[in-house]
Amino acid sequence: MEVAPIPLETCRLGFIGPGKMAESIARGVVRSGILPPSRICTAAHSNPTRRLAFESFGVNVLLNNQAVVSDSDVVIFAVKPQVVKDVILQLKPLLSKKKLLVSVAAGIKLKDLQTWAGHERIIRVMPNTPAAVGEAASAMSLGVAATEKDEELISSVFGSIGKIWKADEKYFDAITGLSGSGPAYIFLAIEALADGGVAAGLPRELALGLASQTVLGAATMATNSGKHPGQLKDDVASPGGTTITGIHELEKAGFRGILMNAVVAASKRSKELSPS
To answer: Which sequence ranges are marked TM in the entry (predicted)?
Structure first.
């Protein structure tokens, strides 16, 4: 039986798990005007801090997860991976095919989510921490029964906190190694650039500000210019100048290979941590 589409105009969105990722998604949805806060809910009565966080921008905080599912057309599971199974099984009687289920739990595969929920209208999404500032890099994979309309709806929801790509689930470990863990690599690079500035004589606060803005500016150029990163790099590196001298040092230290190795190692670890 074909499932009925969920119109955005009437969609009600519920979060199972009132953590920071759920808050980031909810704030993005409200900020972008996709849904009003009155049509978003979660359960956080046992945690006053989280309850206040959601109530501060108008989201309804209900008594329990059962109430959240009952009140929602789209249910986003934003709990820790180790408790996803227990939470879904507990709520299974309420998880009808009329509801679109979404999981942002790292490492939990669609086949397991579908088995636990008892149906296949599920979408798995892998966002990352820059969701908190509306700049997430997210990837999604559709369960067997998820429709094109479901995909459009979730693209709108997660598009409100950054950019989202559709990808085959077989790539999710590599996505975890790149965009899931990637922000930490960039934070490390920002810290190192700032330390370099301090070593060259800059005050700490100035060095950190310059390093952070430089990374932001470079990322914006890579995203918006339409040029390959190698071309952008060449545009900065004039013959015999300061930039090519710095690049030479990075190449001698194996900079690109180190970053590639980090992504591959994190991807491998993701695969090891995922339930078989």
So the answer is: none
pLDDT in tens, 212-241: 999 999 999 999 999 999 999 999 999 999
Both 156 and 207 in one domain: the answer is no
E strands, the chain, in order: 13-16, 40-43, 60-62, 74-77, 100-103, 122-126, 136-142, 162-166
Q: Are residues 156 and 185 in the same domain?
A: no
Residue 250: domain span: 180-273
pTM strictly above 0.90? yes
pLDDT per residue as tens digits for the range 149-163: 999 999 999 999 999
Query: Whose CA is closest to 64, among 41, 89, 81?
Result: 41
109 is in an annotated binding site: no
Number of domains in the chain: 2
Is 132 contained in some domain?
yes
48 is in an annotated binding site: no
Say whether 130 counts as a known binding-site residue.
Answer: no
User: Does residue 2 belong to any structural domain of this protein?
Assistant: no
| Residue 36 is assigned to a ligand binding site | no
> Does residue 80 have a known ligand-binding role?
yes
Per the annotation, does 239 bind a ligand? Answer: no
Residues 66 and 96 in one domain: yes
Tell me: is residue 128 an annotated ligand-binding position.
Answer: no
Nearest to 98 by CA among 125, 119, 77: 119
Query: Annotated binding residue at 227?
Result: no
